Amino acid sequence: MNPSVRRIGRPVALALALLVIVALAWRAMLPPTLPAWRVDAAPLVQQVVATGRVITTSRSQVGSEITATVVERHVREGDKVEPGQLLVTLRAPDLAAAVREAEAALQKLIAGSRPEAEARLAQAEAQLAQASREARRREDLFNRQLIAREALEQALEAESVARAAAEAARASASTTRAGGSEEAQLRERLAAARGQLARTEIRAQRAGTVLTRNVEPGDLVQPGRVLFTIAHTGQTEIEVPVDEKNLSVLAEGQQAVCLADAWPDRPFTAVVDYIAPGIDADRGTVTLRLRVDPVPDFLRQDMTVTVNIETGRRDAALVVPNDALLPADAQGRRAVLAVRDGRVVRVPVATGLRSVTMTEITSGLAAGDEVLADGARGGIAEGARVRTRLLGEVPATTASAPPSTGRELPVQLD
């Protein structure tokens, strides 16, 4: 190589190397570029999302009041029943025999004992009349001194005996006549026997739907055994256990959109109708009941349902993604890492509504501010110089489809 060319190439190489070193040094001195969100106003819907089950306001468990054998079962699960509808027929021969015995005793009173008592009464009254006439006749004869006193006393004694017999016959006839005490007693006995026999027909007391059955023909049933569970016709509700941390944002009358797991494409509405006054200490939940009206035709008892309860709404709220919020301190205060004049600043904020992905900022930030995303905060000290790479506009949050940007950690209230 020409010596002159060699002399020229060396300075050029050294200059290039120096430029590279300077460029690398300058680049190393530049602040890091971190992902951030630009704060802006957007619609916000706060929701509590939870899972519950369909229930009715009341159910009844139907059983037998007697020990008997099942002859026939007339309903099965899912059947609609009306008040008085026959559910099960039982066989109890001893109860049927008791009814026949009571009927026979009443018939004997009406056809036998009553006529006999009336006949005895008529005979006793006739004998009393005859004895009374004889006693009056002998009194007259005695007064005229035509008979001895002994004959008069015999007549008076016979009259007393006849009167006593008549009183006894009258009392006997009184108990056996229609509406008397003996008839009343026999009719009560018959009614009790028929009442016991009626228990061999188990009937529905209220309108409803048969949920469970635990009996088949031939089974021996006893008092205390549940044969059917019936959900009464009436108000349908969804019972939902919700984490107690959501209690402050829940209120009766709030609207909810519900989805049954079996029909996820058929949403229906419900209203919060009841909030339990106490907390389940074991699970840390509070029980809600949501009233469903109208009731969808596909809804079944104990069906699993996901509910989205709208607890707050803003048409235009200043919001930040949930992943931009720093963990709360011991006093529950929140903050964000904002970038102002190229430096990281910890900014305390006051929060309002909170959706699945967004939180309302009521003070501390303004529209256009930039806050670091969750993935950008590791190892960044307050006051550090940084550059930002915006992830985009803060997305709007709607009740029907809470969005996720893919760059944040969605947090829901429940």
What would you note in describing this structure?
The two termini are 79 Å apart. Strands 2-11-14-13-12-15 form a six-stranded antiparallel β-barrel. A four-stranded antiparallel beta sheet has the order 3-10-8-5, with no helix packed on it. The chain is rod-shaped. The C terminus is likely disordered. It has four helices and 20 strands. The longest helix is centred in the N-terminal third of the chain and has 51 residues. Strand 17 and strand 18 form a beta hairpin. It folds into four domains: 90 residues, conserved putative lor/sdh protein from methanococcus maripaludis s2 fold (Beta Barrel), CATH 2.40.420.20; 87 residues, Efflux pump adaptor protein, beta barrel domain (Elongation Factor Tu (Ef-tu), domain 3), CATH 2.40.30.170; 65 residues, RNA polymerase II/Efflux pump adaptor protein, barrel-sandwich hybrid domain (OB fold (Dihydrolipoamide Acetyltransferase, E2P)), CATH 2.40.50.100; 104 residues. The chain is of the alpha+beta class and 414 residues long.
